[in-house]
Request: fold
Amino acid sequence: MLKTGPGECGCGVPDLDLNGNGIADCNETAGAYTTNLTGGTIPNNNLTGLARTFTVPAGALNGPLTDIRIEFTGLNHTWVGDVMAEIVGPDGTKASLFNRIGKVLSTNDKGDDSDFVSTNTYRFGDSYTESGWAAAAAAAGPTAPVAGGDFYATAALSQAKVLMRTAFNGRPVTGTWTVRIADIATGQTTGGSVTGIKVTLVGTAGVSDSDSDGVPDSSDNCPFAANANQLDGDGDGDGDVCDNCVATANADQANTDGDVRGNVCDNCPTVANNDQSDSDGDGIGNACDGCPLDPLKSSPGACGCGVPDTDANNNGIPDCNEAAGTFTTTLTGGTIPNANVTGLLRTFSVPAGAVNAPLADIRVEFNGISHTWTGDLMAEIIAPNGAKASIFNRIGKVLASGDKGDDSNLSIANTYRFADSYASSVWTAAAAASGTDAIVAGGDYHATAALSSAKVLMSGVLASAPTTGTWSIRIADIATGESAGGTVGTIKVTLVGSSAFAPPQGAFPNPDDCDADGILDVEEIALDPELDCDLDGMLDRCQFAIGATDLDDNGVIDTCDRATGDLDLDGVIGAGDLAMMLESFGASEEVPSGQLVGDLDLNGVVDTADLALLLARWGERR
Reply:
């Protein structure tokens, strides 16, 4: 019970320093080198950053290194997702300490907007077991301080552990080393600073045998896993028992997703998948294969899984859509009035027989659009029966995880295309361009819901709508923060009908990953329960794709709104809801399903208990 963490010497060994030279006795016997470097200013948006060098004299260390520890004191920097640090050996070999912590993680963990603060001490070392990524995620928020502590090193844009010492196996330890810390992003206007940097390099004792296999660590190709036979089938210097790719050489042992397979032999290197399942045998694991049962495709593309995206006549329309009927029209633009919910409205008519229902894809292209603050703007497509589907709605505005971008701008020089068949997120593009003068890059994006980065399948939302008749595109500035609206040059709309090959509505290529983003739905819901408001185990965005309605256009499935007491979907719990409950008062269902209007407690009958719940929420706005 003498230690609660590994410390300098590891569990079971006291961290003594009998001669008071700043080097623990356990390291002194193996040969260790410690130096304290002065800090300085970390310049903003500068790849060179702040670099500090030190020289290890000959004989000071026995290689290979068994540990590297680097301590930052007085480190101050806003947005840890902008900053990186690395150590560079005498021959130019580099090892990452951290690199844009919390930034661009597919599982939606955040923390890149939290801050390093000068009152905390941040230590990074191979012998430490805590995650700096987890500490940043716990502190997510634009002014939240990341707790100080002992963290292991991580790779670029990743929470995967990096053993810094591994990078220097077989490399010289004598000579000039460099520690570099740099701000490499453009989102901030200031860099940071650090007061001091303490570096400790721990060498190998001449007779050390950490795994007790009879092979000294200095010549052991798996020093921490017993392998007296030293088998190394791929000849990469890492013995088979500790090699994460036994049959493929990978001296760096890089493993981005942290599963049991190294990147070079992992059929899904960015998403953890220990089982390596590959149902269609195309070499791409199910976990990151958008078409896990189609060996010829890894994403649905324009035609969906199981159907090739061929274009025999080279007219720009895939054959699968051509046979189904495709209608394209280009509308003239105009002025988008400021702070006006009606906005700019343009209509077009689709003649009978032009497009087969239900729609397989909807594409909307904006050319020559100019507008400041994407967070003020919304656009939607309206079917002949009045049903609406969001194209985008206040991009980057009010996202709980802290992503921003609502103050970036759409540029007249760029073309912005939205379609169900596109995979990129305009929310992400806006976040990358965050800043009042920043321009959102043009490109191909999927539609998004109101005040949300969640994908919207427009053709799914309008699956029950008729294709024949008068359609509308509406784009409006619905906020009051700006004094000017915007303009749009032209709007190109393409409606793609369903073909004989289109999968039926409600069928997904992989039922366990209905949105085909490479992350199992159960894992997404566990990380963010709000993605499944009705608790049915299916992502809300997938329910929208198969016809779930949102009549009040608030981005929430109607059944979830009604479950709170907003029975008439007017956005407030009041007299209209009370009237609807009284109309069904006393009604019951044999098996409670949550579908009985007014059954707020889901007990299968509308009664006084439901009335009490509604009155308790009277006046609430949804």
In short: The mean pLDDT is 81. The CA atoms of residues 340 and 551 lie 21 Å apart. The first helix runs from residue 25 to 28. The chain has four domains: 32-202, 244-309, 319-497, 564-616.
